[in-house]
Each structure stands twice: as C-alpha cells, then as structure tokens.
Amino acid sequence: MARLQRGRFSDPDDVRTLPHGRIDVVELDDRVVGRMTYDPGWKWSVDVKPIAGTDSCQFHHFGVTLSGQLRAQMRDGTELEIGPGDVFEIPPGHDAWVVGDEPWVSVDFEAMRAYGRAEPAGGRRTLFSVLMTDIVDSTAQAVARGPAAWRDIVRGHNELAEREIDRHDGRLVKTTGDGVIGLFDSAERAVRAGAALGDALRPLGIRVRAGVHSGEVEIAPGDVRGVAVHAAARIMALAPPDDVWVSATVRELVDGTGLEFVDRGLHELKGLPGPRQLYALVRPRSARIRPPAGGH
Q: Closest Cα to residue 32, out of 126, 183, 163?
C-alpha cells in the first residue's frame, strides 16, 4: 500500500561504483530510483559491459537528465542524444556514451534494482529461483501477424518482462526469442513475477506459460547454467497457457506465504532422473498478484 515517504540521494540506500561513474540508489518500498553520474569518457560497452556480461545493455531506462549530454545507440543503428531537461526512454538492446566534457547526471525510475550490480564470478554455483516463460503458439502467431507486427509484439513482451521481473526484485538474465529467463533470491517473488507477467501481457494479445524451480545455478556472461535451469525449462514446457507451474522444492519454500497450489501429479522431466511432483499456482484470472513486502 502506498504511504507518505521520501528518500535522499545524499543519503542513499545503496551506492554502486562503476568505472567512470556511480549510481546512488534510493528505495521507497517496492520502488527503486537511481541517480546516475557518468564522467566524461564513460561508455557502456567499455565500462559496464564487463560487469553485465551481455553484448548490449539489456535494461529498460526511463528518466530525466539533470545535466550533461548522453548519446544512446540501438542495435539497429538508431541514435538519440539526450540533454538537460530531457525526459528519456531507452529500450533494452543499446550502447550509450557521454558526449562532451561535462558529466551526465540523470534520475532513472526503471531497472535500478539490479542495474550496475556485479554478478558472482564465473564458475561459482549459487542458490537461486529460476523463472522461465514461453509465449504460447509463438510460431503460428508470428506467421499470422507478419514480421513487422510480431517484432513490435516481442519488443513489448521483452520490455514488460524486464519491468515485472525488476518489480519483483529479480534480474532478467536474457530473452529467448519467445520467452525470458529470470533469477530471484526468493521463490515467492519468482512465482509472483510469473503470474504478474502473464497478466501484464494480455493487452498485447499473447499468452504465456511459466515454470519455476529453485536450486544451484552457475552464472555465465549473459546466461545461466545448471540442472536447476533445465528443470525450470522442463516444468515450463508442461504448463498450459496462462499457468505457472512449480516444483515440489518451490512449493515447500513458499509454504506460509498465502500462495495456493493444486497438485498436478508426478511427471518425468526429460534429461532428469526420476519422476518429479509438480504444482500449479491457483490465482484469480483477473487480478494481478502484488509483490510482497519481504521475500522468502
């Protein structure tokens, strides 16, 4: 529930130091706002790419420039220069750099929960909850709608997915062409994000299925590996349209959170030993599930 509150960039909740820049982060319950300060010479593909591990910035930025000039370039070559007083939106899939001799200072209202954070070193296995989603009948829809219209739908899907994952304290690992992979340090938030994403995408005329599993994964540049990832993918593939299916591990982790499930029986997951008990999230079809105040 919204409440009267304020934060100060002079006393931030988090400070992320980047080469040639810094981000001061203020948290207001489930909203996270960042003040980005990039020095002359800063460039995403030089200073942030080694941290992100992706070929381009996969975060959606929406904010206002306070001072300085920034030039953003999309993967198709489209460029836009942003200056003082400009309210900007930069979709995922871009590079950017400071123009001139003045630092670029802006306030960003999107993607600040995870942007600029270093990931665990490669090869290190870490416990996460993995959310995987898939657009139902994506090939048939792409043919029916035509290439241009389908590209717009997929672009909208990717932006909404990044927004919902970030809103639930997760991180978008990558898009898969017709779905996404998200990582969460909370099984509950992963399940709620899967449900919220399905609701958010309905206005685009597409439906998704989602699977969630919790286990140890290995972080790689722009990707994630491990048995837990394969399990989440297999669970997702079994889910009907509009459903969020979870493993027994996830079901146990979210016990006491108020989430309800129905037993979907034992299933063999291709490539994994033994049958696995799976559950489907029970939720009102017309209501978005709001992120909780705290994770589990």
A: 163
Confirm if 87 and 140 have CB atoms less than 8 A apart. Answer: no
Fold observed for domain 14-108 = Jelly Rolls (2.60.120)
* Nearest CA among 175, 220, 211 for reference residue 193: 211
pLDDT attached to residue 286: 41
Tell me whether strands 104-108 and 275-282 are parallel, antiparallel or unpaired. Answer: unpaired
Query: In this structure, what are the phi and psi dihedrals at residue 234, rounded to the nearest 5 degrees?
Result: -65, -40
- Residue 296 binned pLDDT confidence (cut-offs 50, 70, 90): very low
Asked if residues 95 and 46 have their Cβ atoms less than 8 Å apart, the reply is: no
The 8 Å CB, 24+ separation contacts for 166-171 are: 166/32, 166/110, 166/111, 166/113, 166/114, 167/30, 167/193, 167/196, 167/291, 168/192, 168/193, 168/196, 168/291, 169/113, 169/291, 169/295, 170/114, 170/131, 171/114
Q: Tokens standing for 211?
A: 């699977």
Domain residue spans of the chain: 14-108, 125-282
CA angle 102, 105, 106 (to 5 degrees): 150
Give the burial class of 277: count Cβ atoms within 10 A of its Cβ; 0-12 exposed, 13-18 middle, 19 or more buried: middle
Q: Give the residue-averaged pLDDT of 12-21.
A: 93
CATH number listed for the domain at residues 125-282: 3.30.70.1230
Number of CB atoms found within 10 A of residue 123's CB: 8
165 Cβ contact list (under 8 Å, min separation 6): 131, 171, 172, 180, 182, 193, 197
Question: At 93, is the secondary structure helix, strand, or coil?
Answer: coil
Which of 48-57, 126-135, 244-253, 279-288 has the weakest average pLDDT? 279-288
Contacts of 26 (CB under 8 A, 6+ apart): 7, 8, 9, 12, 13, 32, 33, 34, 35
